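Q: Predict the assembly, please.
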Amino acid sequence: MPSGSRLQKTESLRTLSAAAATRLRADILSCALPPGERLRLDALKTQYGVGYSPLREALVQLAAEGLVELEEQRGFRVAPVSADDLTDVTRTRISIETLALREALPAGDDAWEASVVQSFHLLSRIDPVEAPRRGVNVEWSKRHREFHYALVAACKSPLLKRFWAQAYDRAERYRRLAVTYGSKPRDNLKEHEKLMKVALDRDVEKACTLCSEHIMKTHRIILYDIGKKLSIFRS
Amino acid sequence: MPSGSRLQKTESLRTLSAAAATRLRADILSCALPPGERLRLDALKTQYGVGYSPLREALVQLAAEGLVELEEQRGFRVAPVSADDLTDVTRTRISIETLALREALPAGDDAWEASVVQSFHLLSRIDPVEAPRRGVNVEWSKRHREFHYALVAACKSPLLKRFWAQAYDRAERYRRLAVTYGSKPRDNLKEHEKLMKVALDRDVEKACTLCSEHIMKTHRIILYDIGKKLSIFRS
DNA sequence: GTCAACCCGATTTTCGAAAATATCCTGTTT
DNA sequence: AAACAGGATATTTTCGAAAATCGGGTTGAC
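A: Predicted assembly structure:
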């Protein structure tokens, strides 16, 4: 079952529509709403305590991000998973992230370096292996995203960064799905550290290589651990 | 003023929401709804003859595609234009399209070749220079998009193709804006023909080079013709 | 038994009223 | 004049009722 209570407007999410999108996105990425699950409006209405309009707007937005599928007149469902889709998402993510790195590294200034170091430090303070409790993993996920984002943040192309975010999130869902279904989070802090080092050294080629390998390694583990289980999610 | 009459459901657009998104997208790409223009719901309601819900859903979707901007509690507007944005969109489009070409060319089979030839032929039947009437240009735009899509269609990554479409559309809006404001459509059929030839020969490097140059050439012309006028659109 | 037509409950989609919020105007104070 | 408050108007956002559509089940004709 997805996350808790009634939705409210906040400072940064000033409409229920935006709040619903944020919460639904989190619930889908965490697989609290599992792949393929039908999203009935009445159920969501009760669950989140908001009306049809904000919910539909949120779902349409998530459909545009590829996290939800909409079949007209037949409703919404969480985007299904498959080995093909995982491969597509992984390869595209590698392409986009390396493109972004190529632009970011030469453009990175002191502030960029500082935020890379900072986000790496925060990442290093959580051991995803030793602390497999739910809340901790959510926090690790946040910091992991922050770290990868910090690396590409100096890239001056908003559009490329938008694509980066979409690809990252779709890949991240598979990683969380694997962890949910028993895959052990691996200790990849060393990989991140090396990646950071070569990035700060502005070694573009090495950074792209390490980044690709880092993502591919995760990909292979996920595929090995849950590749055959993916077809379960036909609900 | 944007395109005509009351919206209706059709076979392929089975909800008013989808129909509204399609029509709004067309009106934004054609610049019938100019960049920066405020999109008041009451006005759109009258214009398109549908209620608030489908309109808001369509606008949220277009916001996710980068064609509309949403400021919470202050409504929607057509995405603004700027020289920086044009450059971002162009460069990202080149990156994505060459990525897609690299995957498509080696994967292209007979059917792909056939559809490339077919779409080139259709493109060649319209001269965008001689027939600058509105309807004809819309048809040329469609065929131009079809041609470029046909080239990358053999790429097996749905996600990359989704990104391709978003980048293409955002670039296309600038081209149409330039034409609307007096830029003469140039005769680039030769460029397309060469691109097709090298693509069919599976010369990946040459195809990527030609494609990049083709896009950059359009970019330079647009920037030259309307670069300084872009700031007009602050409405 | 098969197929089509029909009906019924479940669900999505659409609508406009009502609530929430922003924006503009006007008058008042300093 | 500038700054501010109060209130009227414009606009967005949200809601649940109503309409449209889907899916499953039943009936009846062949």
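The CA atoms of residues 60 and 70 of chain A lie 8 Å apart. Residues 15-17, 50-54, 73-74 of chain A lie near DNA strand D (CB under 10 Å from a C1').
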